[in-house]
Amino acid sequence: MVNDHLSDLIARVKNGYHAQREEIVVNATKTVESVLSVLAKNKYIETATREGKEIKVKLRYEGGKPAVMGIQRMSKPGARYYLSVSELPRVWGGLGINIVSTSKGIMDGKQAKKIKQGGELIAQVW
Length: 126
What we know:
Elements: H1 5-18, E1 23-27, H2 30-41, E2 45-51, E3 54-59, E4 61-62, E5 65-66, E6 71-73, E7 82-83, E8 97-102, E9 105-108, H3 109-114, E10 119-125
Antiparallel strand pairs: 1-3, 2-3, 4-5, 6-10, 7-10, 8-9, 8-10
């Protein structure tokens, strides 16, 4: 049984890319689906399709190299990490993204800055 679905998702994505898998399977929750849609929109994964209680994630490779060089969980269940919109850090000199949970939903840092909304910094991807 998994208690922290987001940490499980991040570990599976990281391990899937390291093992050069084409596809991984994660447990389906609304939060996980939202994070995967942000990753798909920013072209870090190909697709994420829900099949019952699971989500099949097709990983993206560019010229044989993984689209994700690194992914890190920032806010954890025991230590939440809340930031205002002006405090959102740049990831890899602007080459990566922040995944932020705001009152308007889960989105990347660029969208959060556009609507001037801070929130919980869930993860960073580069």
